[in-house]
Amino acid sequence: MTENETHTPETIRYTADVVALTPCGNVLLIERGWPPFEGAWALPGGHLDDGEAPHAAGARELAEETGLHMNVGDLHQIGVWDQPGRDPRGPYTTFAYVVVVPDGTPVTAGDDARTARWWPLNDLPELAFDHADIINAAVIPTP
To answer: Which is nearest to 77 in space by CA: 116, 45, 111?
Structure first.
C-alpha cells in the first residue's frame, strides 16, 4: 500500500444460527427462500438487529423462521464461525447455539423460510454455507 492509498476495512456482518435437536436424533432445518443458496436447506438463523445480543437474535430468528419459541437461557453456545469465504456475500461472523427440544415438537415455516422440517441426523440434505460443520460441532462437542 502506498502513502496515498487508504485501507477501508471490510464490514463484518453478525448472525446467529440455532441447531435445534431432538432426543431421537433429528435436527430442525429450513429451506431458504432467498439468495444466496435459495432453495437449499440451512439452520434457522439470521442477522443480529442493532444492539441485539447474539443469543437473543438466535431465539428470535428460530421463532420467526420455524415457529419454535425458546427461552434465551435454553440456547447454549457451541462456537463462533468466522472463516473467510464462508459466505459469498462477504465477511460474516456467526454465533452458533444448540437447544434440545422434545421429539414431535411442531414447527411451521415463517419469515424467510419456504419450509421448516425435522431431518434425521443420519440422512441430511446438502446444506448451505458451513452449516454441516456447525451441526457436527453441536452433535460431537470438542473436548
So the answer is: 45
CA 47 – CA 132 distance, rounded (Å): 19
Contact 27, 44 (CB under 8 A): no
Place of cell 454465533: 95
Superfamily of domain 13-138: Nucleoside Triphosphate Pyrophosphohydrolase (3.90.79.10)
50-74 residue pLDDT tens: 999 999 999 999 999 999 999 999 9
Domain ranges for the chain, please list them: 13-138
Find where cell 428470535 sits: 60
H helices of the chain, in order, are 54-66, 131-139
For residues 70 and 81, what is the distance between their CA atoms, to the nearest angstrom?
Answer: 22
pTM, to two decimals: 0.91
131-134: Cβ within 8 A, 24+ apart:
131/17, 131/42, 131/43, 133/81, 134/17, 134/19, 134/43, 134/78, 134/79, 134/81, 134/94, 134/96
Written as one letter, the residue type at 71 is N
